[in-house]
Amino acid sequence: MLQRPAIAVNSTSSLYIRARGINGVEIWRMTNHGSDPALARDKGKTKKPSDVKNVVITSIPMNQSVIGITWFSESRVALFGKNGQVKVYDVQVNGEKVEVTYVEGSKLELGVTLKSFAAAGSKIAFGDEKGAVWLALFDKTWNLSRSTGHKGSVDALIFSPDATRLATAGRDGMIKIWNTDVSGGLDTTHSEVLDFFSVAYDADDVSEVHDTEVSEFPVFRSGSTRSDLVPSISSDEVLDFFSIAETDDATIAEEHIPGELIHTSPEKDDSPEMVELEEIATLKGSAGWAISIEFSADGKRLVSGSMDNCVYLWDIENESLLGKNESHQGWVSCVAFSADDDLIASGSWDKNICLFDGTTLELIKKLEFHRDYVVDIEFQNGALYSASYDGLIAKWNIQSHRIEDILDSDTDWIQAIRFLNNGTLISV
Predict the structure, then answer these.
(1) Which residues of the chain fall short of a pLDDT of 50?
(2) Partner of 390 for a Cys bridge, out of 115, 179, 328, 372, CB 3.0 to 4.6 A?
(3) Are 28 and 7 in contact (CB under 8 A)?
(4) CA–CA separation, 219 vs 239, rounded Å?
């Protein structure tokens, strides 16, 4: 199964929080040190990074691996541990100083092993190894909804575009749709949540990470920004690109950015009232369990990629299978709809991308370029981006089916990509 890192970004895309294996999380700041955007442009096809420094401000230790992070208000961050522990922290930035304070009463001990995670503003969802699906909202206390709808581990989940529904895929081969239009509303004004998740590692020890400056993360600068949620990037512009890699002792610099970390031990662990999560639909007919799922922009259909090497298209309201395509020769690790729902793309462990008709799932074109597993794809501003374990991101023209740009991360592999509100393309 794919292992995707847990990461979340604040509303201004200035602070990044990422899981660091068994060592809790790190809070990063990305700063531009006056580099010329033209430095990112090569004369050839491949674009290389410009000089942007990414600095660890401070860290938050946890006694277990973190599989999910969400920045669900301007200053509050929730961390979800693999072993079912959840905590909320208040993050205050004052210049170069950062204060991280535990929020009293926010600790949960769910007593389960979490396998998947997704967030949409203030709504947070996660699936566990026993087949339960959880929906959580936090104000001063937690509001939880839960259902044991699956008969196997819940390995993938995603919110609909309006966040009123949640799709989950389990190892029982079922895909289920849940109502998430619960009381409390949806606050999406402060947070930009990336639905990366990771299957964490088991360990008992926790070590705190020192303030660290890392210079080798590749960043492609762009002169454009985007309004709303769509960046304005033309085919001749260089993309902002941010790749987070593991740091080791050799990368620790002598010069530190001050950071103040305050931990307040909770005195009590209130158990929230549990509400049953409402199931809307069950989608049956896949020969293998789904490992990637995506809603259409109108929320009426769902596309899934499966371990049987097939892509499936579903009608949610009628709970029916609209199409099945067997063009891949490996696990289908990622799927996506175009913004107008006219196209569907899929990426596979066979190293290829397939482009389908968004209504019939008929194969339009198989795109061949990558030298290793294709692990993520994104439609953005009329183009298709594919990321691979070969460390490259390809930008495809969806009309000519040709590559327009190649972004070289200068890393051994890429696990996931997402576009941020400021037009940055982030890879981890």
Answers:
(1) 33-44, 49-52, 184-270
(2) 372
(3) no
(4) 8
Class of residue 199 by CB neighbours under 10 A (exposed 0-12, middle 13-18, buried 19+): middle
What is the per-residue pLDDT across 196-248, written as a single tens digit (0 to 9) for each?
Answer: 433 222 323 222 323 333 333 334 433 332 222 222 222 222 223 333 233 33
- Say how far apart CA 357 and CA 342 lie, in whole Å: 6
> According to the model, what pLDDT value does residue 272 have?
55
Question: If we measure between CA atoms, which residue out of 244, 197, 193 comes closest to residue 219?
Answer: 244
pLDDT one-digit tens code per residue, 69-88? 988 777 889 999 999 999 99
User: 55 near 29, Cβ under 8 Å?
Assistant: yes
| Rounded Cα distance, 142 and 361, in Å | 41
DSSP 49: -
DSSP bridge partners of 353: 347, 367
DSSP letter at 355?
Answer: E
CA neighbor of 291 nearest in space, from 380, 372, 376, 371 = 376
**Running DSSP on this structure, what letter comes out for residue 141?**
S
Q: CA–CA separation, 428 vs 418, rounded Å? A: 9
Q: What residues does 335 pair with on adjacent strands?
A: 346
Which residues are bridge partners to 52 per DSSP? 32
Sheet of strand 46-47, all strands in order from the earlier edge strand to the far edge: 46-47, 403-408, 392-397, 383-388, 374-380
Question: Residue 182: which of 149, 127, 143 has the closest Cα?
Answer: 143
**Cα three-residue angle 99-101-106, rounded to 5 degrees:** 155
Cα 120 to its chain centre, rounded Å, is 11
The answer to whether 306 and 191 are in contact (CB under 8 A) is: no
Which residues fall within 8 angstroms of residue 360, CB to CB, at 6 or more apart? 322, 323
> DSSP 3-state assignment of 249?
helix
Enclosing H/E stretch for 364: strand 363-368
Name the strand (E) or helix (H) holding 25. strand 25-32
Q: Between the CA of residue 78 and those of 122, 172, 327, what are the distances in Å?
A: 10, 29, 40
Find the length of the chain: 428
Residue with the two structure tokens 């950071």: 259
Tell me the chain's radius of gyration from C-alpha atoms.
21
Distances (CA, A) of 425 to 208, 264, 350, 419: 29, 35, 24, 4
